[in-house]
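A reminder from the course coordinator: this example appears on the midterm review sheet, so study it carefully.

Given structure:
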């Protein structure tokens, strides 16, 4: 591309504007706008859009029902006849592929849909309610969590609009198979006072959970997609969402445990916080027991009471033991670090044993060609780095626990 055309290339993330619109005033209020974290799943790997001058893409959603408005504005667009056949990217075409059917491109039409939101009521069954007092001293806010299934009347049409947010905030996101009735949904709404009297609702967050079969007649629910929309972050909403999921499933006798599909670091931290707060109430996780090391009793109690699997129970033990460890006491702190490092080192030890077995059955030259293992010092370095990163994450969880 020539330098003369470079001004026609823009970063898609910079020209996209989102809003969750509660009233007509929100449309003109810049404070209600927010942007995407990524757009490569819509506009391609480099996230660039070519062919427009002063491009601005507006994606506005009514705050409750998520009726959608798409507005694409620009002052000029490249013409193939004047640019050796070069065409502008088909922005509307790319968005049409991912937006739910029924979006509008007329702003007045959208405003009429926003007005209809006053009669919107969340789909599904109310399973949890909570309030949040923001750190900035503003008024207390009310939230409700609703449980829905594939069969919940009206929910799938709503979900079709809701899931589009995944593309902008969750890497490698994919839309779920709505023909599979094993999917469950938990949606968080802010319940706020309307200036016309009564209450209205605004979507804040949601999670999908898949009910996996576990032999012989059991279930192993797996939390799959979790998203808190940007205007509602830093309010502790995700922790409440996890609690709502736990509350729903822990009372079901057929549930073996609750797992999470490929959790991000941020989600794992919130999950750790919720699990640690829960487990520190259990007898097996009291300080005297923690100093004795991880036990089957801990695994059993965590699973029985909160449906936490053994791997996560071990992680929670490490967090709570660190929380109760006097790091000024060199011996106590050393014992803790060795305990965690022994667990982290287990895969390296397993690999070492596998290599020894391989050495016995391969000719020397074949074994030499196969070996890619690093030296002892490099393995130790990796182990130390792994531990340091883990303790840093644990301390973030502990800090939140101590400042609730």
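Designed residues:
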């Amino acid at each position: 591309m020539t330098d003369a055309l470079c001004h026609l290339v823009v970063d898609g993330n910079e020209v996209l504007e989102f809003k969750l619109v509660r009233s007509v005033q929100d449309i003109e209020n810049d404070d209600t706008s927010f942007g995407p974290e990524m757009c490569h799943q819509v506009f391609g790997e480099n996230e660039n859009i070519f062919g427009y001058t002063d491009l601005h893409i507006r994606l506005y959603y009514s705050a409750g029902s998520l009726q959608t408005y798409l507005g694409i504005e620009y002052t000029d667009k490249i013409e193939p006849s004047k640019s050796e056949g070069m065409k502008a990217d088909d922005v509307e075409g790319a968005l049409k592929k991912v937006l739910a059917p029924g979006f509008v491109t007329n702003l007045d039409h959208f405003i009429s849909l926003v007005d209809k939101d006053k009669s919107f009521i969340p789909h599904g069954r109310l399973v949890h309610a909570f309030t949040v007092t923001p750190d900035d001293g503003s008024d207390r806010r009310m939230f409700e969590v609703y449980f829905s299934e594939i069969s919940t009347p009206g929910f799938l049409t709503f979900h079709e609009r809701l899931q589009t947010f995944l593309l902008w905030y969750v890497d490698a996101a994919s839309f779920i198979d709505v023909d599979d009735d094993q999917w469950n949904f938990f949606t968080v709404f802010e319940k706020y006072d309307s200036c016309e009297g009564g209450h209205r609702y605004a979507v804040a967050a949601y999670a999908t959970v898949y009910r996996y079969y576990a032999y012989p007649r059991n279930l192993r629910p797996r939390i799959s997609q979790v998203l808190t929309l940007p205007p509602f972050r830093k309010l502790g909403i995700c922790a409440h969402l996890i609690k709502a999921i736990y509350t729903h499933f822990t009372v079901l006798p057929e549930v073996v445990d609750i797992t999470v599909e490929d959790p991000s670091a941020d989600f794992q931290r919130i999950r750790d916080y919720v699990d640690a707060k829960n487990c520190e109430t259990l007898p097996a996780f009291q300080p005297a027991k923690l100093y004795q090391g991880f036990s089957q009793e801990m695994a059993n109690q965590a699973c029985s009471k909160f449906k936490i699997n053994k791997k996560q129970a071990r992680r929670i033990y490490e967090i709570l033991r660190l929380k109760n460890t006097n790091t000024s006491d060199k011996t106590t702190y050393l014992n803790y670090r060795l305990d965690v490092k022994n667990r982290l080192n287990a895969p390296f030890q397993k690999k070492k044993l596998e290599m020894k077995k391989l050495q016995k059955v391969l000719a020397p030259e074949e074994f030499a060609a196969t070996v890619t293992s690093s030296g002892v010092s490099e393995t130790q370095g990796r182990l130390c780095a792994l531990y340091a990163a883990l303790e840093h994450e644990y301390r973030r969880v502990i800090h939140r626990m101590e400042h609730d």
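The chain has 15 helices and 14 strands. The chain has a mean pLDDT of 92.
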